[in-house]
Write a structure and sequence with these properties.
Glyco_hydro_9, Glycosyltransferase, carbohydrate metabolism, disordered N terminus, Endoglucanase, mainly alpha, globular
Length: 493
């Protein structure tokens, strides 16, 4: 948690109170945020594929381990399938459907569930051989990053990596548990059979995660291929995260006891509770569990709610204690190379907590100060509007939304001419000529939310500037639920 040195209290308060200067079409942004996932698909594409410039890719994934690992998502602008962030993406798509699906049109909810199922169908494959082994990743990051080629042309190694049961993988398995358990709730009404499959596998995966504790990236067999890209700094938050989602999905007291007994030992009250994203889940754990305290008066879990409340209070500069940081233009940031990852995840938690407060007719208590749920929502709306173009650069950071958005993003498939126009393959090295070209990307990755500006609200852009112009699935996934809320609540428009 960094001290909030980038904002002046009065300035931020004004930002939170004043209405946005630019009206936004949240319905359009929501549709596009979900459509983005079709541009990230790996495997054989369905007839209903709407991102028409994409084609089939990586149809032999898993062959080196004699298994089928075709499908899933490329996490960002490269062509590797990292299972840890993919699972987090699925968890957030599921949470968006669970808590904000009522704000979506039937069509939008349907597309969101399709995007979710593309992920969970694949995640089921990653744990299909439990308890003997778990699949970690497909593709070798360094050879992949040495090439600039569209996924349809890949000639880099598609090596699949797995860990046998003797090696711990609690963080990876814990996140997959969360994804499958959350998805089981999301599909419970529309596809009960699939929901049961997901929940049964989530329960089995959690047992595997908890039985041999440790981080998957501590294992020599996968460390060099996963790190430094998605290296884990601990596994205890994922065990709490998985248990919390299983508690919500099942209501079984075993998971309640697990959460009670392991809260302090697993660090749910340490300083990392101010973080939330693909790597650290504690902020999400506390907010998720707070729902039971609000709605079921489950006082034994009150410490989780109390910690969640500390994080919520940190967004208000007039409160005591640590504070979240803002850019001069009002964007939440918390360090890291991609600003909008943190913004998207934190916005989701703020909006979710506001919803829990409203449904229980409560306010946020920050010492002697009280805040209505709408105070949290105004902070989130400021973030969303900033992303959509109400920012110092007057630039939309969602590709394809608005009139001004970056045209040279760090994304192989988007930057290389499509197979529908140029069926002949581009070679590994040939693609670098395109990478360095000043010409706009020929394929618009509609709905992609990119890394965004720096801490001073400046945006240089360009394909070479990956921290600013690379999209990721785990930036978009939290925004789905957030955009759904504002689409259906015109008083904030």
């Amino acid at each position: 948690m960094k001290p909030s040195v980038y904002f002046v209290t009065v300035f931020i308060l004004v930002l939170l109170i004043l209405p946005t200067a630019i009206p936004h079409d949240y319905s359009d942004a929501l549709r596009k945020s979900i459509l983005f996932f079709e541009g990230q698909r790996s495997g054989r594409l369905p007839k209903q594929q709407r991102m028409a410039w994409r084609g089939n890719s990586a149809l032999n994934d898993g062959r080196n381990l004699n298994t089928n690992l075709v499908g899933g998502y490329y996490d960002a602008g490269d062509n590797v399938k990292f299972h840890f962030p993919m699972a987090f993406t699925a968890t957030m798509l599921a949470w968006s459907a669970i808590d904000f699906g009522s704000y979506m049109s039937p069509n939008d909810l349907g597309h969101n569930l399709v995007a979710l199922k593309w992920a969970t169908d694949y995640l089921l494959k990653t744990v299909s051989q439990l308890p003997n082994r778990i699949f970690v990743q497909v593709g070798e990051a360094q050879p992949d990053h040495d090439c600039w080629e569209r996924p349809e042309d890949m000639d880099t190694p598609r090596t699949a990596f797995a860990l046998d049961a003797s090696y711990p993988a609690s963080d990876l398995a814990g996140e997959i548990t969360a994804a499958l358990a959350a998805a089981s709730i999301a599909f419970k009404q529309s596809n009960p059979r699939y929901s049961k499959i997901l929940l049964d596998k989530a329960i089995q995966t959690f047992k595997y995660a908890d039985s041999r504790r440790g981080s998957y990236t501590d294992n020599p067999g996968v460390n060099k291929t996963v790190c430094p890209f998605y290296c884990s700094n601990g596994y205890k938050d994922e065990l709490l995260w998985g248990a919390a989602w299983l508690r919500r999905a099942t209501g079984i007291d075993y998971y309640l006891t697990y959460l009670m007994n392991n809260r302090q030992a697993f660090g749910a009250n340490n300083n990392y509770y101010f973080e939330f994203g693909w790597e650290n889940k504690l902020g999400g754990v506390n907010v998720l569990i707070a729902k039971e305290v609000f709605q079921k008066n489950m006082t034994v879990l009150a410490p989780y709610k109390d910690t969640a409340e500390k994080m919520m209070c940190s967004f208000f500069p007039e409160t005591t204690g640590p504070h979240m940081s803002y850019t001069p233009g009002g964007l939440i940031h918390n360090g890291g190379s991609s600003q909008l990852q943190n913004t998207a995840a934190m916005s989701f938690l703020l909006l979710t907590y506001a919803d829990y407060l409203s449904k229980s007719s409560q306010q946020l208590s920050c010492g002697n100060l009280k805040f209505q749920p709408d105070s949290l929502r105004r902070i989130v709306k400021r973030q969303v509007d900033y992303v959509l173009g109400d920012n110092p650069m007057k630039l939309s950071y969602m590709i394809g939304y608005g009139e001004r958005y970056p045209r040279l993003i760090h994304h192989r498939g988007s930057s290389v001419p499509s197979v529908t126009i140029h069926p002949t393959a581009f070679g590994c090295l040939q693609g670098w000529n395109i990478f360095h070209s000043p010409n706009p990307n020929p394929n618009i990755l509609i709905g992609a939310v990119i890394g965004g500006p720096d801490v001073d609200d400046k945006f240089i852009g360009g394909r070479t500037n990956a921290s600013e112009t690379e999209p990721t699935t785990y930036i978009n996934a939290p925004f789905v639920g957030v955009l759904a809320y504002f689409k259906s609540n015109p008083k904030f428009s």
